[in-house]
Hints:
Blueprint: H1 2-41, H2 45-70, H3 84-105, H4 108-127, H5 146-164, H6 174-204, H7 207-222, H8 224-258, E1 260-262, H9 279-303, H10 306-334, H11 339-373, E2 380-382, H12 392-400, H13 407-426
Helix pairs in contact: 1-2, 1-4, 1-11, 2-3, 2-4, 2-6, 2-11, 3-6, 3-8, 5-6, 7-8, 8-9, 8-10, 8-11, 9-12, 10-11
Amino acid sequence: MSQALRTFGRIVARHWPALMAWYLGGEALHRLLVELSGFVGGHTTLGGLLLLPLAVAARLVSYVAMYLTVRPSLPHSRREDAGGIREFGSATLAAILPFFAFYTAWGLLDVDQIDFFRIASAIALADSGYDLAQVGDRGGLIAVGVLPVTVLVVALVARLLFTRFADRLPRWTIILATYAEVLWTFMLFTLVARWWNGVLDWFAEREAVGWLQGFGDWFAVNLAPVAAVWEGATWLFGILVAALIVPAAWLTVAGVIFGTTFDSTPSFGRWGGGATRGAAMSIARTLVMRLEGLWAAVAVIWRGGPLLFGVYALAYAAWGFAEQAGTRGALQLVGGHEASFWAGFFPLVTVAVAAVAEPLRVAIVATAYDSVIGRPQAGLDTRPSGLDDEAGEVGVVALDVEQKRPVGVLRKQEDEQDAVRGRLDGA
């Protein structure tokens, strides 16, 4: 516990200004890109769709930068050969899928798309003289149809081509590969969310649902204790989601960014001999390596043990309470004003509070992650991320080369190095 507190204090003392700057930069760029995509979407929905994923990517990049910034202060997760644009690009690519999943599940993707539609529709209606028949292919309306599916397929094919020919392309093309990954992932989660909302609406219109609602109302009126138990269980479920699932999700995102690996390669990674080559094997290798990295990051949640995760969840809950209290206190300090005042001032208050709170959240998550990596029984380690390690010779090494030295020897050497480094720090 004392080492975790020292790690947390070291992160805050060394990196708070940088973390705050990365967060504010990401939020400013996110807002700017939402406005720009809405403006373009007011003239062409396709153009807006091509820009809107960059708004989400702006927040992703800021969080990747925040976690990589604190890595040198993590005693068990730092690597001397880590750092630079190569690790940054690879970490961003690896974090796209889990970050978008969390972003969608928490409702933030819907917020961005609502803002996008509000801006684009206002521009399109004004340009068309408020004649819906003249709006045409503009206005920012995103629905399940040919356009989003086509964008998804084209972006996915482009991403696979970048994967296949990564060793032949200039290094700067990782920017295009990252954009293709962001675009197809954004469209995938958008279509899934639209489909799921359609399913929920279909169920809401069924007679059985109305009967169940009437049955629940009868219980609420005639059997108040049962209704109280049901409401209490619903409230408890919401508390558990906020107290356990959300911090676990952030721990997974951090694990993906840091490049978590198993000390021993899982069984699903030891396949695919060196004889088979070509596009299919390159794509399969990419999927296997991504799944292995994601699974290792998820394993961080339980391999730290219930005590460590419980302490982390309590610290995260305390952070959440303090963040809400800070926002409420700032709003009360400003006092009552008309709605037009709060329309412009409320976002500034929330961002100002978050600029103080987000570095603390990163410090809490990074400290918990490093504590798990520091446990030898966890069987986890980190690696410096290379330039999109999914292609070329790196992918062959990851799957086709057997380990030359026993895992235990390597782990023992790393523990001895950490011990020596600790003595030097204390001297």
